[in-house]
Amino acid sequence: MIFMLEAYIKKELWHFDLDLSLSIGSQIMVLWGPSGAGKTTILHCLAGLHKPSSGYIRLNGRTLYSSREKIDTPARLRRIGYLFQDYALFPHMSVRQNVLFGVKGNKSDFEDHFVDPVEMLNSFGVGHLIDRFPHQLSGGEKQRVALTRALAASPELLLLDEPFSALDKNTKTRLRKELKELQKRWRIPFVLVSHDEEDASFLGDSIITLPKGKS
Question: Is 64 exposed, middle or buried (0-12, 13-18, 19+ CB in 10 A)?
């Protein structure tokens, strides 16, 4: 299957009107720009956490949102993984419980993308932490666990919001390489938000610059 995301998003914000069109296949697209440019808002619209003022979002032939057709698919049904900036791990759950939270025992319709979450934790080098809690993890370990949780539900699109902002330089350099290899294995679109030019140039197969929320 060839994975494809197409979107046109207009969103009225308090300080400007966001106006963006994008099209991406099985690649990494980076949304690059300063704080306040609307990057996270775009991810929220794609994920179904915010509703655009108008436009459309299509993923692999499915219309997830259309102002014209009055379609607004709930976030839980969009098959989109989201790695939040602070990783958003549940503090009262172990690594195992966090990773299994979004799986609910259902296999993906795309069998080649179904993975055993425990095996994925092992592949990321954090399998030995499976019974620990988030407060017992380093920043890099939290990121790997959060990535595993996002991918365990077999998404058709992965959104990443400033995934390296809380990491030291050596960890960031290592995890950038891991993320690039991960996308090559999964072959689904990744949309990554960053204000770091080095992250954008290393990871981005395509880069959209958002100085004023328009592209």
Answer: buried
Secondary structure (3-state) at 32: strand
Q: Can you tell me the distance from the alpha carbon of 132 to that of 141, in angstroms, rounded to the nearest whole number?
A: 11
Between strands 17-24 and 5-12, the pairing is antiparallel
Q: How is residue 40 annotated by DSSP? A: H
Q: CA 184: distance to chain centroid?
A: 15
pLDDT for residue 102 is more than 80? no
Q: What is the pLDDT of residues 145-203, one digit of tens each?
A: 998 898 888 899 999 999 888 788 888 888 888 889 989 988 999 999 998 889 999 99
Q: Which residues pair with 21 in a beta bridge?
A: 8
Q: Which helix (H) or strand (E) holds 66?
A: strand 62-66
CA distance 64 to 40: 18
Predicted TM-score (pTM) of this structure = 0.89
Place of tokens 């920043």: 139
45 alpha carbon, distance to own chain's centre: 12
Per DSSP, the residues of 103-168 read TTTPPPSSGGG---HHHHHHHTT-GGGTT--GGGS-HHHHHHHHHHHHHHT--SEEEEESTTTTS-
